[in-house]
Amino acid sequence: MNRYRHAHPIDIFLSTARFLGLLIFPLLRAAYSLLFTMDRLYDWLAGAWFDILTVLLIIGLGMLRWYRMTYRLEPHGIRVRQGIFLSRERYIPYKRLSVTSAEAPWYLIPIHAVHLSADTDGGFAREADFSMTVQRKEFLPFLKQCRTPFWSNEEIRRVYLPSNLNIAVLSFIASNSLTGVLFSATFLSGIGKVLGKSFERELMTQITTIMQLLAFGIPPAAAILAFTILGGWLISFLRNLVRHLRFSAVRQGGSLEIRSGLFTRRIFDITVERINLVETQQNLLTKTLGLYSAFIHANGYGKKKDELSVLMPSCDKAELRGNLALLLPEFPLCKPKLKPRLRYLSRFLIPPLVLITAVSILCMGAWRLFPSMHSIILYLGIMALIPCVWFLLVKIVSFFHTGIGVKGHVFTLRYSYGYRFKTVIVPTERIVRIYVRQSVFQLASGCCDLVFYTFSEGHKRHIVPNISCKEAAQLLGEQNLPLPVLLRMKKKSR
């Protein structure tokens, strides 16, 4: 039986870095500035003794936490012991694991360290059931032992290797400006902590000056907003691209192994029977081009911040069907049996038309009230109307996309969410509840929304809107739904 193993010593620093950063960088800057003057150095030590003591206390608690945190691989599960003052012990059976992963960031490669984690269906929504930084030589035996109940060497290895162009399309779809802006803000804030606020202010001044030079007659505030959005999207795109290069998916037995990452290598070992659903996403552009990006929902995959649960970065419809049959034949894609009727089209168009009308009225009112700001109002009005008109186009296409299909005991749900078109393939045993939602406006037309809740650590809801009530009741009545699925009517108030 294996002995208990400690985490890699770097875990001491990783677990305390967020606290040390608040104190140690200001202390180091001050010490450096006074290093060559002993009298002033003594004065600094006399004034900074409490901060130094706090840093030493944080490091001491980190070392104690490292010493008290151990794990052991047993024949049928992982046993974990941890706790600084109160010892806790957990046992995670291999058969209950949904995802096991290993991550090797570029900064851990020189010291031969790897992040390991393991998750089950019964854990926390935002953190893994087991997570530890260990020696690199430990991660292969760890993954091999965890996949033992599901892995079969007699099964054929089925491999999927997308092209770099496929990965670029995924990065284009998944990128958004807000993520890039937040990343940039965090980066600049970190620079300010390390190099000082004066350097941070000077850097921001230079960036603002460059944006003003590139404005080409556009109002400075509008130019800064436009470049911020564009720059944020570009940063997000590059991060997603680097994260998913060298992507591969391998199915063998009851295990699906996914690898990705250019500088930071990531390995995910996913238990197929624990996969809740397969989901494809498209935006208006990729929908026009007939391209899909496929994701899977398994507790532990795609859980970390900015992490995507990718199965296929991008592919056309024929490749989607073929690769699903290759990697996950348990999730067949089928054509819709239920679709919205033509008379329900107005229900798709009303929300974007209301938005366009509201923005237009607001802009016209601002134009009359603030005559000196016509150029800014015109720019902001156009910028506000573009997403509204785009939303109208999305809703028109959504009418033809929406529907429900059934093949065996597997549902295929098609609907739009925001600006994205989703196709969700989910087995009936992973559906925990279905209810029919009908507003007072839908009563007259005889349509309703079908709301599906699927199994997950949190709430995952899928709304297929504006389906005929009679056809929905007939389709659901034909299915031998499992006991956890409840069907009920719910009317929304005005």
Task: Give a written overview of the molecule.
It is a single chain. The chain has helices at 10-20, 24-33, 38-68, 136-146, 164-174, 177-195, 197-213, 220-244, 284-289, 317-327, 345-369, 374-401, 440-445, 469-478; strands at 5-6, 70-74, 77-82, 88-93, 97-104, 113-120, 130-135, 158-160, 248-252, 255-260, 265-271, 277-282, 292-297, 310-315, 403-407, 410-417, 420-427, 431-438, 447-454, 460-468, 487-491. Helices cover 45% and strands 27% of the residues.
Which short descriptors sum up this protein?
21 strands, disordered C terminus, globular, alpha+beta
At a glance:
This protein is an alpha+beta fold and 494 residues long. It has helices at 10-20, 24-33, 38-68, 136-146, 164-174, 177-195, 197-213, 220-244, 284-289, 317-327, 345-369, 374-401, 440-445, 469-478; strands at 5-6, 70-74, 77-82, 88-93, 97-104, 113-120, 130-135, 158-160, 248-252, 255-260, 265-271, 277-282, 292-297, 310-315, 403-407, 410-417, 420-427, 431-438, 447-454, 460-468, 487-491.
